[in-house]
Amino acid sequence: MKKMKIGITCYPTVGGSGVIATELGKLLAEKGHQIHFITSSIPFRLNKMYSNIYFHQVEVNHYSVFQYPPYDIALANKMADVIEREELDILHVHYAIPHAVCAIMGKQMANSNVKIVTTLHGTDITVLGVDDSLTKAIKFGIEKSDRVTAVSHALVKQTKDLIAPDKQIDVLYNFLDERIYRKVQSDYLRKDYGIEDHEKIIIHVSNFRKVKRVLDVVTVFANIQREIPSKLILAGDGPEMSAVLKRVDELGLKEHVLFLGKQDNLEELYSISDLMLLLSEKESFGLVALEAMACGVPCIGTDAGGIPEVVMDQKNGYVFPVGDTESMGTAAVNLLRDEELHSAFSREAVVTVQNDFHSSKIIRQYEAMYADLLNED
Ligand code: GMT
Questions:
Q1: Distance 18 CA to ligand 1 centre (A)
Q2: What tens digit of pLDDT does each residue of 265-275 get?
């Protein structure tokens, strides 16, 4: 396959979309493509040197004449610079707003034939898509992109329902780097965190936004804790943290819940965990469930968005209606008590990741889409 020059724009700070965009860039670079990140800061997962990955920082000057710093215009300007100077073949942006709209502007500024690919991750549709002040811009960004992908079938449906764009949207699932997300030996963490050998470990990882329903996670854990000696690991931080702390206190669970804040090297935490809880009311995919599953951890998820495309009910975990904490608690207790069933779910979780979400398969799909676009001319 011809090696391509690919620009990538994403939100570079913590978050699933930034993770996917960065991992995609890294894996494409490993296949010999030249990658140009055009972002406001170095993507946080770009943690090692690659000779064919370049970083172009978007800088916004703060002039007193502007009430708001014009980030979007500065981004479009930087995209135009990079498109021209590096002769990009593809500009792949993550999020319709503002990135797709900026890419369309940047392409016009550069008077170039660069192909624009937009990947929808969820929040740009499920949250921004219901904001009247943005829907036309989202529709424009989608329709004027050369190709649009979404991370789940559920997100395609939601986009059609909310925005009704006149555009085909292809599903390209999320993936992970299997060299990192696999069961590793990290049992020392149990001792370090004061977790007894006989205790089960339940894990939840998120940015603690309201849509993640972390209070439900605490409620389900309370149900588990009543029946089985266990600890809850909460990794991440965000707006719901104080409500969660309060609920943990009210339920008398303080000694059983570990608040770890934002963490790297999550594979080490997953590797000591017995069950992942992802109980969101909105979730276009649920990358953390995939990460946990790759380390052999079954997941209890909700039927929100794309979660049921990742967590297969009764196969590698359970899926329940949003908020049905009673049933979730009962299923969790049964699964944690039944070693044979737990091992089967754990094995199946790894197989699901390998068969349906393997990075080599998904990266090939992206490459084929780019090549197809370039052949259109
Ligand atoms: O979940 C978040 O709040 C972060 C958000 C983001 O934009 O980074 O994640 C979205 O994209 C991830 C990668 O595709 C998906 O795994 C998450 O499900 C999705 N989040 C939501 O839809 C709420």
A1: 9
A2: 999 999 999 99
Q: For position 369, what pLDDT does the model report?
A: 98
Please report the pLDDT score of residue 129 as a whole number: 64
Taking CA atoms, 126 is separated from 116, 138, 163, 247, 282, in Å, by 22, 11, 10, 27, 8
> In this structure, which CATH number among 3.30.2400.10, 3.30.980.10, 3.40.50.2000, 3.30.365.10 belongs to the domain 188-356?
3.40.50.2000
* Residue 77 burial (C-beta neighbours within 10 Å; 0-12, 13-18, 19+): middle
Cα 123 to ligand 1 centre (Å): 6
Q: Where are the beta strands (DSSP E) in 197-256?
A: 200-205, 230-235
Give the residue whose CA is nearest to atom 12 of ligand 1.
16
The yes/no answer to whether this complex scores an ipTM above 0.85 is yes
Give the nearest ligand 1 atom to 124 CA: 7
All structural domains of the chain with their residue ranges: 5-175+358-375, 188-356
The per-residue pLDDT of the chain, averaged, comes to 95
Q: Whose CA is closest to atom 20 on ligand 1?
A: 283
pTM of the model: 0.96
Q: Nearest C-alpha to atom 7 of ligand 1 is from which residue? A: 17
**Looking at residue 96, what DSSP letter applies?**
I
Q: What is the pLDDT of residues 167-215, one digit of tens each?
A: 999 999 999 999 999 999 999 999 999 999 999 999 999 999 999 999 9
Q: How is domain 5-175+358-375 classified at the CATH fold level? A: Rossmann fold (3.40.50)
pLDDT over threshold 80, residue 221? yes
Question: Does the CB atom of residue 119 touch ligand 1 within 6 A?
Answer: no
Q: Which of 120, 130, 155, 285 to mutate to test the pocket of ligand 1 (most atoms within 8 A of CB)?
A: 285
Q: In which band, very low, low, confident or very high, does the pLDDT at 376 lie, cut at 50, 70 and 90? A: confident
Count of CB atoms within 10 A of residue 86's CB? 17
Contact 371, 2 (CB under 8 A): yes
Answer whether 96 contacts ligand 1 (Cβ < 6 A): no
Beta strands in 206-336 (DSSP E): 230-235, 257-261, 275-278, 299-302, 317-320
CA 143 to chain CA mean position, Å: 23
